[in-house]
Write a structure and sequence with these properties.
2 copies of one chain form a homodimer.
Chain A lengths: L2 E9 L4 H15 L3 E8 L7 E9 L11 E6 L2 H7 L3 E10 L11 E4 L1 H9 L5 H13 L4 H9 L7 H16 L9
Chain lengths: 184, 184
């Protein structure tokens, strides 16, 4: 069975839950994956780092908790410090170049996610949706079209255009990444 | 270990995922529960009924999938038809009186959720958040205050006042419910 365990992590307010819901919906509703999307709260979840998990598989997902991540997306240093041990050695880390200084992992893609959101969309708020575009392009797990459909049902209508442009800007960033474990 | 398995179910567009995220955050971040919030997508999830699950416990949640529900909230007939078999015999069903005609379960609370949203808030769109207020009052699992905090980080600022009023309107509806398994 093909199975991918994905974690989006950052600080509260960076919108990793919304982004994960959209990713799971794009994959599960529009591309036929089995998908489970989860967030957990508990003493270990308090204190800054916020995370949301997505598991995609080509068959039923019996155990819906991430064990070893194939992909960790880190939008803050604290998130990387906390969750990097959960990433497979052959997995991929995608990090924001502004908020993450250090990510000691052999396969790390460092992208100007928040900077591009600021520069191209005027607000860092769009970093989470922009990041989805990059994930899609780098991993090939979902199409840009499916993400656009999922976004349209999850964001307020007046921001749909900006969010769509955020997806496209992220996709472009992803297109600049030469090699990664998913394409290998 | 105390553990409560909760499912919010309706049709796409009724906002059960957002409501579940808010419920889990209220319980997990502001009230010290261990909480897991999940949505699943797969062939069985297609075709109308939309659902989101929340598990609350007073200790770590090792298996994060709902097995037998303590509480099923149904905002559509299709959702009730599909998920009622998952509700414990001694569990509680809360249903919308407008959208659910039939709910053959011994402990069913029927409330004018969508109607109250229309009448008091001007839009049915607020039914999901209003429902959270009713759940809180009926079950005692989270306080109105914690829900307000969680809502404030999850809805656009310009709608915060309406959403807060939705929570309060739901709480009032819940206050009219005389007996339920949670208070017994």
């Amino acid at each position: 069975m093909k199975k991918f365990e994905i974690r989006l992590a950052g600080t509260g307010g960076q919108g990793v839950i919304l982004a994960s819901v959209i990713l799971a919906e794009a994959a599960g509703v529009y591309e036929g994956w089995y998908a489970v999307q989860t967030q957990s709260y508990g003493p270990e979840a308090r204190g800054g780092a916020s995370r949301a998990d997505v598991i995609l598989a080509d068959g039923p997902i019996l155990y819906p908790k991430c064990r070893k991540l194939d992909l960790l997306v880190g939008l803050s240093q604290q998130a990387i410090d906390k969750y990097l041990p959960d990433l497979k050695h052959r997995g991929l880390a995608i990090i924001d170049e502004f908020y993450v200084r250090e990510c000691p992992h052999p396969q790390t893609v460092c992208l100007p996610l928040s900077r591009t959101a600021r520069e191209k969309l005027g607000r860092e708020l769009f970093t989470n949706i922009l990041t989805l575009g990059a994930i899609a392009k780098i991993t090939g797990l979902v199409s840009l079209e499916s993400l656009k459909k999922a976004v349209s049902s999850r964001v307020p209508k007046q921001y749909l255009d900006l969010n769509t442009r955020a997806l496209e800007a992220g996709w472009e960033l992803g297109a600049g990444v030469k090699s990664n474990p998913f394409s290998a």
